[in-house]
Amino acid sequence: MGVSVGYLAVLLFSSKLLASGFSLLQGPPADQKGRNSGKAGDRERGSRRSHISSFHRQMAILVSASALFPSEVEATDSSLEGFLDGPLGTKYKVLKDGTGRYPGKKDRVKIEYTAWLRGFGNSVGKFDTTVGKDPLVVPLDKNYVIDGIEVQVKQMREGETRRIWVPTKAGYADEGVPSYVPRGADLWYELTLDEVLPVGPAKKSKRSRGVLVDE
């Protein structure tokens, strides 16, 4: 727990420093340049140099501190070694074989999943999950799920669990999901197909994260 808190603290500290640093290094606005002449200008430039030096010292401390807190991103599994190629550029690895039937084009499916950015098992990058909730029931013919997940689920059998990598073009592409998925992000899923259900209405959801798209 200490490592996780420390890592988040370093991230927060770095974001503040970088924001400050860019502001300092940009220089004065164009309409103020003419006023920064003579002694006043010298004082301002000296003050800015002092602030920049202070910023560099703080960045050095930050780099040293970050070594004490191993990055959770580095500790996660973003490797796709051993994964097989799937439709639309997706990749997958079967963790558990299923013994049930395959879903039809218009069937509903009951699934459980966890979704991450930057690698499997990344607690910092986890942006959605059904763990601790009811499984999700969605139809496969209503564009309820992102393309990369739809094509993968259609190839799975009941009871099967896969790790799935979804390239941005088969995910949220350039739209992203505000506050959750950056634009152009690749996605990592661990997904289980619990059950294939008869054709029928699915319970609508307003969620726009994980495998669901906006209604």
UniProtKB/TrEMBL annotation:
Record keyword Manganese present: no
One function term, GO molecular function aspect: peptidyl-prolyl cis-trans isomerase activity
Class in the EC hierarchy, top level: isomerase
InterPro entries attached to this UniProt entry: PPIase_dom_sf, PPIase_FKBP_dom
Keywords noted in UniProt: Isomerase, Rotamase, Signal
Disordered, as annotated region: 29-52
Protein name (record): peptidylprolyl isomerase
Organism: Chromera velia CCMP2878
Top-level taxonomy: Eukaryota, Sar, Alveolata, Colpodellida, Chromeraceae
